[in-house]
Amino acid sequence: MSVQLPPDADANGFADLVRELEQFRWRSEVEVERIPSPQRIAPFSVAVSADVVSHDEELGNGRLVLLHDPAGNDAWEGTHRCVTFARAEVDLEMVSDPLLAEVGWSWLTDALERQGAQYCAASGTVTAVSSRSFGGMQDEPDRAEVEIRASWTPLVDDGHGITQHLAAWQHLLCTTAGLPDLPPGIVPLAPRAAGARRFD
Fold first, then answer.
1. Less Cβ crowding at N or C end of the chain, within 10 Å?
2. Single pTM value for the model
3. Dihedral of CA 160/86/123/78: which sign?
4. Which residues fall within 8 angstroms of residue 112, CB to CB, at 6 or more apart?
5. Separation of alpha carbons 169 and 165, rounded Å
6. Is 50 exceeded by the pLDDT of residue 192?
């Protein structure tokens, strides 16, 4: 994954963060690729998308955008911003659980804290939806999905890098998709139910 940056990116330190992104070692189940990044939100940006795949089955997906504005942004409370979403199918029973939103948000905050990622000004939404097909599509199974949209300010201005935040995002993706947290090199067992995330 190679990212082209403007010449002044080095002077602002953004190039160092992009190099961390390029060199990050993702879990084998997390397939990451570069995608076009937004051009109008901040002077510097880079974006990636990811699919969480286990045993040839896609369990979830997401996107991460890293923004940098050297002039700062009052809403960010800093000069950098991580913007993400993570999405996965879940059991139908989960979408009716009143605690799902709080649990989904805790997946992000726990991931950041677990990885030692220093941050502030986190915000976002957790959305759970279910769908049932009718008419010519009535044979399609009922589906449910959870989606976490969030942003936070990584505190990288004091010499801290972005690696911990990348690890936290990966942890969020895998948690949302129902993958267990395993040491590097360990392969998880096949999921019990295809495409369905459970609390247990």
1. C
2. 0.82
3. positive
4. 119, 122, 152, 165, 168
5. 6
6. no
